[in-house]
């Protein structure tokens, strides 16, 4: 069993984003990589990045530039499914903390990969005397 206890919500959010991106790469959703840079690049550069990643999609995923897979597709490796599970559990935990930026996942995640779903516990700070 995976336990993510002891990590702050900010650290969990970073892990969640990394896991989400790994899963999306394996599913052929390369536009999500470009989207990370949406607010950091001028429009022309963002469009160039998006087009470049779209051209790389067939090389990386063997999918056409207009295709992508769902997480439950048999073509998505278990590594990507496990990463998605970690992402989903963290998002569920963060949504339960009341943070308005993490309100998307309100129902408990269902496993896609071979790992048991991780548990996220809030940090319990000890009071020193």
TrEMBL record:
Domain of life: Bacteria
Name this polypeptide is given: Uncharacterized protein
